[in-house]
Every structure is written in C-alpha cells, then in structure tokens.
Amino acid sequence: MSEATAKATGEAGAAPAPAAASGPLVSVVLAITDNEAHPRKVIDGFGAALAQGGYRSEFVVVIDGPIHRFDDELAELATRWTVHIVSLEGGGLGESIALSAGVGRAQGELVVNAPPYLQIEPDDVVDVVKALEAGADCVATWRDRRVDPWLNQLQSRLFNRMLRLIMNAPFHDLNSGTRGFRRQVLEEVAVYGELYRFLPVLALRQGFRVVEVRVRHKEEKGRAGFYGVGVYLRRLLDILAITFLTRFTQRPLRFFGYVGFAAALVGVLLAVWPLWDKLANDNSLADRPLFVLGAILAAFGVQLIGFGLIGEIIIFTQAPNLRDYKVEEEVAADGTAAVRGAELDESAAEDPPAVAVADGVSATAKQDELPVRVRELLPGEDARWDAYVSRHAQGTFFHRTGWSRTVGEIFRHEPHHLVVEQGRRWLGVLPLFLTKSPFLGRNLVSVPYSVYGGVLASDERAHELLLARAGELGEELSVGFVELRHLELRPGDRPRSDLYVTFRCELPDDPAEVMKRIPKKRRAEVRAAREPQADGTAKRRRSFGIQVRDDGSIDELFRLFAYNKRRLGSPSLPKRWFQALRDEFGKAAVIHRAIEPSGRTIAAVMSFTFKDTVYAYYSGSLGDVNHTGVNNYIYCAIMEWAVENGYRRFDFGRSRVGSGPAKFKINMGFQPEPLHYEYLLVGPGSKLPEFHPSNPKLALPRRIWSKMPMTLCNSLGARLSRYLP
Amino acid sequence: MTAPDPQPEGNPPAPVSEGPACVVPSLSVVVPIFNERDNIAPLHEALTYSLRALGRSYEIVLVDDGSTDGSRDVMRRLAANDPHLRLVLFRRNYGQTPAMAAGFRACRGRTIVSMDGDLQNDPADIGRLVEKLEEGYDVVCGWRRNRQDRVATRLLPSKIANFLIARVTGAHIHDTGCSLKVYRSWVVRSLHLYSDMHRFLAALGVGLGARITELPVRHHARRAGVSKYGLGRVFRVLADLVGIKMLIQFAAHPIRWFSLLALPLFVLSTLMLLLGFVKRTHEGLDLFGDFDMGAVAAGAVALLIAMNVFLLGFLAELQVKVSRFFRKRTAVTAREAIR
Questions:
Q1: CATH of the domain at B146
Q2: What's the whole-model pTM score?
C-alpha cells in the first residue's frame, strides 16, 4: 500500500469553510473503487456543511486500484480541504478493506464513511455527526423519501424488510452508504468482503449503541433496473451468513438441537404406524411414502443434533479466544478511572457555550458567523434537550422529553421535534407530534395531551425559523394545522384560540399562608373538610376529618379520574398512560389522595413538579362527596405540600372559559389568565379545530357517553384517547 | 491466555495486614451487578465488614452489566473511596455469564469468590466457604437450603434443573444456581465462560478434575429491586445440559459421543434392511425373494446418515486435537492427582 498525502491546507481556499475550526475533527472516508465517482461534489459539499456545523473536517480518499482519473481533481481539492489520499496497490480489494485502510489513516475520533458520489443532501451529514456526538457509537442513515427509480426503491425496500424479519435488526435502509462511526467501532468490529454493508447490525450485536438518522436522499447516478443474478445471490448468502454469525454462534446446540430433536420426533411419529402395520400385519412398506419421509426426517434430525454438537465443541475449544462482551471501562483499585469513549458524550450534553467558552471571544465571534439551521432532534440528544428546556424561562414540564417519550410510547404519535442551532449552539426547540385522528384530521401538535407547549427560543430569529420550518414540515406531511399551545404571548400574529384560560399563582413562603389566601367562604369549607369528624351543632357546620396524603396509587387515581371524565361526558385516558407517566417521572409525578375517616379514598390528584412549579394536572373525586369540601381541600393541601417542599409556584391547569372547573378555580381565589394557543393553518381550507367540548354539536354524544357503563367507557376511552390529543 | 496455576495451596496463607492495594490480594470477590442501584451500597458495606473480619487481603470486583438505573454512579462513588474496590463496566447488558467471566479476568486473588449483587447471598458465609476450600477442595458451592423465592416461577424450575444437572453431569451439587461459590483461581482460569455457562461451572469443574463440595449458606429474600429470572430459561438449560454432558464426559474423545449418536441409527438401518430383504413365508424365511422397497429405502437413508454422524465425530476429534484446551486440562488433572 503506497500512501501519498496531499497538502494539508485549509485557509487558502475560497470556500466559506474553515471559518470555525474549533469543533472536533471529523474524518470523512471515501472509497473510490471504480470510475463512477464524483469526489469533488462530496468533498466540497460535506466540507462546507461540516464547517457550517462548527466542525473541523478531513477527507481520506482511498483509491482501490490503478485509478488515476481523479488525481487532478483531488489535488485541486487539497488546496481547499485537508485531503489524504491512500491508494491500495493492486486494487479490487473491496470496500471493507478500503474502509479499514482509510480509517487507519484518519485522525478524527468521529469517522463518516460515504460513497464517492453525492448520495444524500450534504447538509445532512452534520446530523450524522451530531448523532455521534450525542452518544451513538454507530449511525446508520435512512434515506427517507427516496428519489431513485422505483425499481431500485422496491428492491431496496424488500432487502431491508427481509433483513428486519430475519435478523430482527431495527434498520430501514442498510443499503445507504453513508454511515457514521466512532473510531473504536471500526477497530473492534471485523468486517470482510461485502459484510461492511451490515456493519450497523454487527456493531449492534457487539454492544455498541447504534442509531438510525433520517437523511434526505439525493441520488446523483440513477442507475435503474436490475443487477445481475450474482448480486442477488451474494446478498442472500450474506444475509444467511450474518444471521448465523449473529444468532447461532453462541450456543449452536440450542438451535440445532432444537430443530434436530423436532425433526426426529416428527419422523418417528410418521414412521411408527406403517412400521407397526408391517410387523403385525405384514403389509408392505413399499407404497407408504410417509414411512420413507418419516425415516428420512428422523435420520436427518440425528444428523442435525450431530452438527449442533460439533458446533458446541468448536465454540468450547475456542472459548479462550472468544470474548463476546466488551468492557467499556475498568476502574482500578486506586479509584482513578481510565475513561474511554465516555468523555465525548458528556461534553456534548453539557451544551451550547461549551464551544464558546473553550476559545474565548474569538470562538464566540466565529459562532455568530455560522449559518443558522433547523433540523429534527436526533436520537441521544434527549439530555441536551431537557437541559435547554430547564434553562429556558418559558420551558414547562410538558416540553420535556419525558413527556414526549411517554406520548410516543402510549399513543404512538410520531415525534417531529425541531431544533434550531447555529454551529453547535442551540438557539431554540419546538416539540411537535404528528397526530392523526378521524375527528381532527392530520395535524402537528405541540404538545399532545398537555396544556402548554410550543416554541422555546433564545431569540426572535430562531423563533421565526422554527415556525417557518414547522409550517414547511406541516406541508410535507400534509397536515391541516400546526397547533402551538403557547402559555405566554409570542411575537408575531397568528390565528389564536381563546377557548381556554389557565390559572396560576405564586406560593407564599409559609404553609399557613396558603389558607389565608383562599376566599373566606371556601376557607370555611376547607376547614370543615380538614377538622376531625363531628356532627354539626347549631353553631358550627359539620366537619369531616378528611386527610390528604401524597401516597396515592395509580389505581385510585385512574378510578376517580375515569369516573369524573365519564360524568363530564368525555373519554378517559388509559390507565397505562398514568402508569407510564409514573414510571417515566418517578417522584416528579406525585399523586395526592384525600381519605375519609372510614379509609375510603374520595379524591385524588396527580401533580407534576418541574423547576419551581407544581402542576396539579389530573384529578378526580367521587360524585357524592361534594358537600364535604374535599375538592377545595385537596388543592389547598397540595399547595401546602408544595410550599413545604420548597416550590414557589402553583399551576392549577387550564379550563374552558365559563366552564364549571373555571368557576371552581375562580372561587378558590385564582385569576384566569388567557392562554395563547396559536395555529399555523397549513392545509387548504383548514380552520381552527371545532372539535372541543364546548361545541354544541357534541352535547348529545357527551350525554350518551355519560350514561354508558363504566367498563365500556374505560375500554372505549382508552382507544379513543389516541385520537383526542 | 495464561496457563492455569495448579500450585498446591493447602496451607492457608498467613493473614496479611491491611497493605496497599497494589499487593496481589489473597481473596477476590466478584459480583456482577445489573440494575441494583439500591443494593450496591449495603452490599459493599456487608462485604467489607465480613472480609475485614477474615483478616486477609482482599479485593472486590464489581462488574456493571450495563445497568441503566444509575448503579454505575453509585459504584463509582464507592470506588473513589475504597481502594479495595475495582470496577469493570460493560457497554450494555450482556448477561450474567459474560459479567462473571469479565470479573474473573479482572480479579487477581488466589481464592476467588463469586456472588450475586442482589443481597440474597450473605457475605458472612464467605469465611466458612473459604475454610472449607482450604480443607482441600477446589470448588465449594453454596447451597441455599431454605430458599426465599416465589415457588412457582423460581424454585420449581430451579429444583428440576438442579436435579437434572446433578444426574447428568455427576456433579452432586444440590443447588447449582447459587451464585455464592468459592474457587481456587486455577479452576476459574482454566474455564472460559460463555453464554449461560455459569450454571454449569461446577459441572465443568468436574470435567477438569476439580474436587467439589458444597456447604449450606444463608439466603435472604430480595430487599430491593426486581428479580431478573423467569420460567423461560428451562428449555435452554435442557439443551445446554446435553452439550455439557458431552463436553465433560467425552471432550477428550468426541468420536465416542458421536458413535453413541450413530449407533442407534446403525442398528435401525440394519433392522430396516433385514425387514426389507427378508420375507416370512409359509416355508420359513425367504431371503431376497421379494423386496420391500419402503423398508430398504429407510434402511439405506439411516445407514447413510449413521455414517455421516460418525464422520462428524471424526471432525470433532480433529478440532479437539488442534486445540490446546484439552492438553492443558489433562496436565492440570494429572498434576492435581499426583499432589
């Protein structure tokens, strides 16, 4: 292998590129195996995109064989970018070898492998790198919305479907040649022949974190039609080989023994009756094909078991050389850690100013020159998102990824969370879910099942960009409207809904103060509910001795919540939802319950805590306990609990203007605050949603619903709630 | 890979005072951890207490099997303050055997203790097990005499599995599933654990010629966390059992095991062929008078495959011959026997 390293210059070029050379180094490895290559477009495209993303880049071009067509082109590129050229003598060594030769030359910790022609939008390579930075070890790309001829698409889709089926691998587009790796992956996962195609699968099996990132497809050479028969055959054999390598190599006997035993058993069962017939009645076996089949199956089964055993012996004798686990890190006795690989994620998670701080003012200045870009949230960036939300003044509990994860898991809505960033600094986020419903149509909602959501941005420009992108996304997904559940007023003028108001208050410093703030009449009710049980005398009201504790269970909450919902004529959320919220948020999802002296739970409220706020969110109470004032008391108790636990604000949640709950909250001494729910009307003829409980058209269905039996309501409601985000 | 160290270790090493941790400890405790956040600190405390009481140098190797509940942070915090603690951290969850194997690789003591991270084993038993080992055994297994688990899902399958393992492998251990075991380091170093092999450690030890015994140990109900076992394992254990039986009994000469597999086929094929060629008539037996093609075909197939299986045995024999494992095994066993 001869190596010719071209000049390593960056500054001379005219490209906007090397402006911000402060970020980590990304090595792009291209393997040129034939004359069908366009390295210029790839290198210019990727180089510019990476520079704009705030990364330094280097390119390693591996030339497999005596191909000299690109020499001039590469020399010219080397004046603009850092380009290393590795030429493999002889040639025809294949992609796997070319890749490992290229990685050997590369210096970056993050390696991107791409075909030598422009297969994806160059900007999207930044997403691949960002996913790596967010903690992934290997990134597979998924060319979503492909642009190559339909025949190719069909073949590719079949291939991937088959892979998913056989190997249980969660990838949609293994044919996509653009991948990102941490160097370590390529050093540890051995690939040969055409197996490089399956690198993500192999890496996954070896315990690396592999994620898939959607990219925009840009096929430069559209070669339609079929490949030769040999290509398909090789693919098929590769799949078989990989399946065996990844599945049955650990304990061969488990597979072969199982199949073999089953075959033998079936065979014996098939053969036994004809044999008996022969021995007892001397009926010839000659015209009994089942007997022959059975005999063959039985013998075949024994042979399979034999194969399993031999596999077992090979594995056992080779066990000293096999290590089927990877140690990420060993911490020695003196407590010092030899950290490998882990540092990068942490620095990435730490967030924006990381880059700016490192290089002081000059880097900040460079940051500001970089273009601003809106993209979707990548896997592994959840921690960073959450950090942004909790730092942002308008960030609410419902902006958190925990809420999004739960929504995705329980209601299977598709997340399309947007991030706007400049270089590596985040300027804003917008959580979005694509919801599909027969009542409301296709819409983008920020955020479903919550009362607040919408844009969080560091400046107005980012805000505008996010909204513009949300609109575009809405058009791409052909939705009706984009719903932004803003709590505060945001700049700009958009259609609004004034259906809801919210109720919030600052909490006092002393728990005793809570009671004093409640209007007199309600205060008397709360007192009556709280004080030990006593029958009313002529002077005093009755008191009920109700206690409120923060140890409510999901069962109790769900029972009461569903009961309440039915009474109001709307479907309840499924119990799984509450359970999932509990699992996701742990202590940040508290359930308070009110208990009668008899031990019966008569009211329960699930509240969320985030930053300095307690959100009283899901509630329910029995219908026959209104006279006890328990509804007033439980909220009063939650506020007291909040004060005791150091929270500064209480959020009573939204209510429809003029509805019962709204009156209840006003009576409790809260002031209604308008909510600024905003809509981007995207689809043709789309208008503000009319499917809400105030709509008179819905009065009858709501009446009917409230009369249905509880079990039916619950099971139907659990299904319906998916369509009522 | 280092050769096993079969040096006699009959005399208990003199108690070593608390020295710097870089001195090779005499006792290593290996504990795989998977999502045991709430158990680690109590476990560490209990282990430290009972190991100090033994009065010899020790190390604790905690292997984090890709926990996702923050166990790792707890372990790091502990390791920062305790020079006896060493950590091996996995990238993801690989399972108990790889965790054990990694722990065994990392530990340096001459006596090695393995136990569970869920506090169901009592560290106070380690002392007795080590004493027993020094009476002249190579492996001492814990035996949870009165188990504290739910009956249906854990106890019964485990009883069946243990019975089968004991019967088939000849390692007469009541409770192979108990993680609390004490080994001499050579046993552990000669065994290369993979897949679910930890269950058969004792049995494999028998194959190596190790002297094995057991001692009842205490067993507590889980304090925190969730049990990670279920019923589904039983079937896999069965398949493994067949493999293990072959490995420990015939590993040196696998052709015998394959012959055993081929033999019934041979017999069957002979019978089939006889049945096909010989016909019973009124005058007695009629040889080659009248073929029964069905029987002949079945016999021929069985014969063919019997030959095949026998030849597979030959391949297995070759594989064993080229590997170093069994040569070493015989050496170890021989030296142990002489001692």
A1: 3.90.550.10
A2: 0.66
